[in-house]
Amino acid sequence: MMTLDRNAMMDRLREEVLWDVCIIGGGATGLGIAFEAASSGLTTLLIERDDFAKGTSSRSTKLLHGGVRYLEQGKIALVKEALRERDRVLHNAAGHVQSQGFVIPVKRRWRQVYYGLGLLCYDLLSGRRKWGRTTALNAAELRLKFPKVADQGAIAGLRYSDGKFDDVGLALSLAKASAAQGAVLVNHCAVTSLNKTTGQITGVTVHDDIAGETMDINAKVVINACGPFGDSVCRMDDPQHENRLQPSQGIHLVFDGDVMPGDDAVLIPKTDDGRVLFAVPWMGKVLIGTTDTALDEVTAEPTAREDEIDFVLDHANRHLGLGLKRADIRSVFAGLRPLIKGRRDETADLSRSHEVSMSPSGLVNVRGGKWTTYRKMAEDTLAFLLRKKALSFTPADTRYSRIVEGPLPDRLSLPTEEKALRAAVTKAVSQEMCITVEDFLARRFRTLFLDARLAIASAPQVATMLSEAHGFSAEWAQNEASQFQKLAQRYLPQERKSGYLE
Ligand SMILES: Cc1cc2nc3c(=O)[nH]c(=O)nc-3n(C[C@H](O)[C@H](O)[C@H](O)COP(=O)(O)OP(=O)(O)OC[C@H]3O[C@@H](n4cnc5c(N)ncnc54)[C@H](O)[C@@H]3O)c2cc1C
Predict the structure, then answer these.
(1) Which residues 6+ apart lie within 8 Å of 108 measured at CB?
(2) Which residue, judged by its Cα, is nearest atom 35 of ligand 1?
(3) Which of 81, 240, 241, 301 could disulfide-link 234, Cβ–Cβ 3.0 to 4.6 Å?
(4) Which of ligand 1's atoms lies nearest the C-alpha of 300?
(5) How remote is the CA of residue 457 from the centroid of ligand 1, in Å?
(6) CA of 56 to the centre of ligand 1 (A)
(7) Which residue from 185, 186, 249, 371 has its CB within 8 A of the most atoms of ligand 1, so it is best to mutate?
């Protein structure tokens, strides 16, 4: 597997006179397109203003799924497509994917029949049953698996299987696989404007945060793959652009694994706002979420609101009987769904499907979608370029293209011993374009998401090691550590005025 060497990438970025494709945004959407384009023989450049998967793509519920709840809304085609793509990710990136059992507890017998029929349909749509059979659980079986859930009045349940994956792991593997196909990918480099000749986009201006350098880049096609931030790039194209996206925030709370022992996840099918709530075992912890809060503005650092934290805690305690308190929260993280605006105001009803379009000046916008369907979004984007005669090429068939060969190295826990930590830092810098403390503690390891206090405590040591690996000053290390510690406070619930973290 190719390594990611930022200096070599920057050299190639300066050398190339005209790129076929310049992709803005290094999340699931952009990285998927980079792999598709480079595999199709196009000279491909991807520019990410922060770090790969810094945006929504590191903040998912970690599910590779068709979306059971969309069946209830009759979105059969959406579910079928996602189930097909779920199987493809398993085939192409098996090392990042595993089968996950989900239990749906029910308090009424008819609900078991109702959800059972839905899951039968889900199994039928997924074709071959690669992931495991759906089974009904009687009261005793449910109690054995989740005694506290049974104590909350659940009388039976259903158990089905779906996919769980490592979102950041897959993002980094996609970056490496794209590089192996010849793509150039650069992080910590922002697109600051779109360049035009006679009204048509001919390239972009980028600012490299590391060298402090600004450069003009020429490209035949510029693709806006900025997820929830996409409207800001559209405004670089047309200052009068009206938002096409309705960002919706979803949060997750992370707890120690022993609060919900066992391998199965739980799906609560109806919360007070009509959504589903997941409690999923993840990297030795339990992830509980999520919410759906419509936002007027997007920021690079979405932060969980107090009412969202209360909502998730309240539902977890009410339905799962976990007796959780704010002080038990190890980390809380928020992400922004790039939902395409619909006619209804409720974001839970807005489309999870994707769309590809082109502005009059030639900017290609890829919107919506979800992690599970990243490959299909990329395939559709390239097909769109062909249809629009924006480029001429033979598209690669990536349905069976391997992204990684499993099994993958264990990134579960941050090394505690100095020598091992230094080796991990050196490797992340030389092979995975890790620059900042956040890159390392949030995405090369998931410490910030798993245990924010541990991340805060580790920051000074990691900053020093990073500065040595990069040849940066001691002052840089000090600044980096304190900036990261400030950021990490956002991953901890705030103190309550009435008492500490009640
Ligand atoms: C709470 C939550 C849970 C979810 N759970 C799941 C799940 O379990 N399964 C699933 O399949 N999907 C899930 N999703 C959906 C999925 O995570 C997203 O659809 C997907 O990650 C979006 O990827 P993206 O690349 O479009 O956006 P992002 O990941 O946000 O990437 C956009 C990138 O563009 C960059 N950028 C912005 N402006 C510029 C600029 N000017 N120059 C350069 N770069 C720029 C940003 O830094 C960012 O990295 C979930 C979403 C949320 C919010």
Answers:
(1) 155
(2) 25
(3) 241
(4) 47
(5) 28
(6) 3
(7) 371
Output the pLDDT for position 410: 60
Question: What is the sign of the dihedral through the CA atoms of 178, 180, 182 and 185?
Answer: positive
Q: Which two tokens stand for residue 342?
A: 């619909």
pLDDT at residue 349, as a whole number: 45
Q: What is the pLDDT of residue 186?
A: 98
Whether 371 and 61 have beta carbons less than 8 Å apart is answered as: no
Q: How are the residues of the chain apportioned to helix, strand and coil, as percentages rounded to the nearest 5?
A: 40, 25, 35
**pLDDT digits 0-9 by tens, 358-380:** 999 999 999 999 999 999 999 99
| Residue closest to 26 by CA, chosen among 49, 43, 3 | 49
Cα distance between residue 201 and residue 97, in whole Å: 39
Task: Extract the residue ranges of the chain whose pLDDT is less than 70.
Answer: 1, 128-130, 343-352, 406-412, 495-502
Closest CA to 435 of 462, 475, 458, 409: 462
Partnered with residue 333 across adjacent β-strands are 252
Distance between Cα 249 and ligand 1 center (Å): 11
**pTM score:** 0.96
Burial class (CB in 10 A: 0-12, 13-18, 19+), 400: exposed
* CA pseudo-torsion sign 430, 436, 441, 443: negative
Cα–Cα nearest to 128, from 90, 74, 71, 170: 90
Give 371 Cα–ligand 1 centroid separation in angstroms: 8
Q: How many other β-carbons are positioned within 10 Å of the β-carbon of residue 388?
A: 13
What are phi and psi for residue 336, nearest 5 degrees?
-115, 120
Annotate 139-202 with three-state secondary structure: HHHHHHHCHHHHHCCCCEEEEEEEEEECHHHHHHHHHHHHHHCCCEEECCEEEEEEEEECCEEE
User: Residues with beta carbon inside 6 Å of ligand 1?
Assistant: 24-30, 47-50, 54-57, 59-63, 190-191, 225-229, 233, 250, 290, 335-338, 369-372
Atom 37 of ligand 1 has which residue's CA nearest to it? 226
Kindly state the greatest CA–CA separation across the chain.
72
pLDDT score recorded for residue 126: 87
Domains plus CATH for the chain?
6-56+169-244+349-400 (3.50.50.60), 251-340 (3.30.9.10), 418-491 (no CATH)
Tell me whether the omega of the peptide bond preceding residue 426 falls within 30 degrees of 0, making it cis.
no
Ligand 1, atom 41: nearest CA belongs to which residue? 191
- Residue 162: the pLDDT is 95
What pLDDT score does 45 carry?
98
Radius of gyration of the chain (CA): 23
